[in-house]
Amino acid sequence: MMATDRYTRELQNFGERLRQIRRTKKLTQADLEMLTGIDPSDISRIENGQKNIEFITIVKFAEAL
Questions:
Q1: Cβ distance 33 to 40 under 8 Å?
Q2: Which of 9, 19, 36, 43 could bridge 29 with an S-S bond, Cβ 3.0-4.6 Å?
Q3: How many domains in the chain?
Q4: Dihedral angle, C-alpha 62, 20, 11, 13, nearest 10 °
Q5: Distance between CA 65 and CA 36 in Å, rounded?
Q6: How far apart are CA 40 and CA 25, in angstroms?
């Protein structure tokens, strides 16, 4: 397996888990924006595994959730 394939899969897994946690806490993407300052369109792209994420973004999600 190529590293890029694994990385893409990990981004998708992260996004799926983020969505699951957000929904478990009954938060909308707009709610999560208020908690993190991350635009809902970016949250959507992250949840769908379509956006590369920086470490600081992961920290913001961790602090909010």
A1: yes
A2: 43
A3: 1
A4: 120
A5: 10
A6: 16
Phi, psi of 29 (to 5 degrees): -65, -35
- Secondary structure, 3-state, the chain: CCHHHHHHHHHHHHHHHHHHHHHHCCCCHHHHHHHHCCCHHHHHHHHCCCCCCCHHHHHHHHHHC
What integer best gives the mean pLDDT of the chain? 95
pTM over 0.85: yes
The answer on pLDDT for 2 being more than 70 is no
Place of tokens 């792209």: 45
- Assign residue 12 the CATH number of its domain: 1.10.260.40
